[in-house]
Description:
Elements: H1 5-14, H2 26-29, E1 33-37, H3 46-56, E2 62-66, E3 72-73, E4 76-77, E5 91-94, H4 101-111, E6 115-118, H5 129-141, E7 145-147, E8 153-156, E9 161-164, E10 172-179, H6 182-195, E11 199-204, H7 213-221, E12 228-233, H8 239-243, E13 251-255, H9 260-270, H10 277-287, E14 290-292, H11 295-304, E15 315-319, H12 322-334, H13 343-350, E16 364-365, H14 372-384, E17 390-396, H15 403-416, E18 423-428, H16 431-442, E19 447-448, H17 451-469, H18 482-493, H19 501-511, E20 518-521, H20 524-530, E21 537-542, E22 555-559, H21 562-579, E23 587-592, E24 597-606, E25 610-617, H22 621-625, E26 628-632, H23 637-646, H24 663-672, E27 682-691, E28 694-697, E29 700-703
Parallel strand pairs: 1-2, 1-5, 5-6, 6-7, 10-11, 10-12, 12-13, 13-14, 15-16, 15-17, 17-18, 18-19
Antiparallel strand pairs: 3-4, 8-9, 8-11, 20-23, 21-22, 21-23, 24-25, 24-27, 25-26, 27-28, 27-29
Helix pairs in contact: 4-5, 11-17, 14-15, 15-16, 18-19, 23-24
Bound molecules: acetyl coenzyme *A.
Acetyl coenzyme *A binds near residues 46, 66 and 151.
Amino acid sequence: MKMSSEDASNYDQASSTHQAKAKDLSGFFHPKGVAVVGASNNSAKIGYQILNNVIGGGYTGGIYPINPKDEEILGRKAYKRLVDVPGEIDLAVITVPAPYVISVMEDCARKGVKNVAIITSGFGEVGNTKDEDKIKQIADENDIAFLGPNILGLLYGPTDLNATFGPQEVLPGKIAFISQSGALAIAFMGWTIMEKIGLAALCSLGNKADVDERALIEYFNEDDNVDVVLVYMEGLKDGTHFLRTNIKKPVIILKVGRTQRGAKAAASHTGSLSGSDNIFEAAFKQLGVLRAQSFAEAFGWARALSLPLPKGDNALIITNGGGIGVSTTDVCEDYKIGLIDDPEWLQEKFSETMPDFGSYKNPIDITGQGHAKEYGQATSIALKEDRIDTVIVLYCETSVTNPHEIAQGIVQSYKNSGQKKPMVVAMVGGQRTRDALQFLNQNGIPSFSSVEEAISALNVLFMWKKIGRKEKEEATLEAAPSRAIEIIAKAKDEGRDSLLEHEAREVLELCGVPTPRWAFATTLEEALEGAEGMYPLAMKITSKDIIHKTDVGGVELNIKDAEELRSKYTKMMQRVSEASPDAVIDGVNLIQMVSGIECIVGMSQDPQFGSVVMFGLGGVFVEALKDVSFRVVPFGPKEAACLIQDIKTTKIFDGFRGMKADKKTIVQTLCAIQKIAPYVKEVDINPLVTSERGSCAVDARIIL
Ligand code: ACO
């Protein structure tokens, strides 16, 4: 069997299958001409609705209905085939039944169309991968980028292009929405009006046979009309490809299928695998995208991300009610949002904005008598003062105040301030308050009907700021030493599916994983010689035929000296041969006893992301707490350090009741095991014992 560092380069290629030249997507958004293939005069048909939206949306380029029978559709001259159109076509929207899509794609190639949106269903999502593959082949051979199949269409506000069969009216704005679900995309278009969320672009992805999230996110990186990208994701076809996305703007991902049941539903929806949610979570962190847990949260974040980032950590709350102020303080505390705490200074600045019975401690309570004037005054001061970095405005509806006037006052002072710092609003009340919230949102101030939503939205700015500060780390897979590859190859040649313990330890050691002193011995004499200077030590039987060593009496711990080793060695050999008479004994492993915090380091395979490394608290805690974190291979030392920070019990590693970890050698281990990723299925280091003196892999298993 030949196995070399070639395997590693194959691994790299396998994980970058999409690295072909990026296709030009500009025709989707700035087309000179749009053809609707399958346009119809029958208003019940999708082909009619799309053409109607293209015309009614205000698009001013060439519009070409394609239909084999009709001369004219919706007042536009119709053509029998794409190739009959005299003008230039950058975008073709296909709404003909599945059996005709391939021939229409061939026409697109003949006509030189470079961007195609395939609305038609009946491909990969129902098992018809053959036709989907054929479409992809035609597209790749002719440098055509296509969305779908099985999509709602696409929309781009700046060119007034609405090539969807969703609503015609959409609120303009700076959010790009990429959705794997067409139905949700339709709902979102409706929400833009209802919830006053402005949209720059909407792309339905469907089966993602060609254009995917990465291609669009990278396109929107360079689009000044887009501030924030919001992605609704059910699954990924190739996680490693997605992990290479170049993130320049805030990307919010709503990944559904968190639960086992949800994942099943997603898999049957678009034929995609949802993958283990832990791995998605890790990959999103690694990539630097923001994962929202619900639609409401995602929309709230999208609104907030149009605000300037906070310069510092001093937030100020302005309220007309004590209770809502206190609960907001709690929520800020939960999110670790700092509240400015200087009563004297606050009194000096804010006392004129409230009656005597108001409160100038943060929250600034302008009381139930706070009208538009007081709100306007207080927000103006908060927005002006440099010591305040972030403003949170709260309002509880009262019969003596007018929420709309208050909203107007807030909007006015925000506009007058030059909008240099973030401000969010939470208003609680009835219909009048709801209208006021809409007015605020329409004017670009993220406003919510609950405190929790408002603070979560504000917090996303801190999250994005942190991501921006994180140094990007280029990580490539380092080659494994040739001796380590040889050991693995030999075991595979022998038909084994795992390495023996001493082989696993040697492979890890060769890769740079710190191990305790150890020796492998086939006789008592070798054991005595190998054990010199290593006491106290553990002795473990080694045999390809014995899986559970403890069950056959094949483990002895805390052997203190040569005399004890001699007697325990002899007894162990006797016990094991009685318990397992047919087993071939290869020898014993001698390992120096070490003490410290027990961790677990593992590596396994994920169907979407390939090799992933896991870190957590080990020993007896691993099963009980399941407190583990993941990262996708390859990653470097900075990301490895984040793996340690990510677990809930991370504090233990900084020093806890006399225990302290050596993070440097944990990071070293997390980086080193990645070298054998191309050759193995699983690695399990349990425990990796860490203390101030360093860390070492005490027990290791490698599955091939
Ligand atoms: N070139 C041009 N026009 C053609 C061609 C062709 N090769 N072949 C047929 N046509 C015309 C037809 O004559 C017809 O026009 P007509 O009304 O004047 O006769 C028109 O194209 C449409 O063809 P139909 O056979 O009438 O098909 P129909 O409109 O019923 O369905 C559709 C086509 C919509 C593409 C359907 O096959 C389909 O896939 N529907 C599902 C779409 C979908 O849901 N996508 C996912 C969206 S996301 C979500 O979940 C909301």
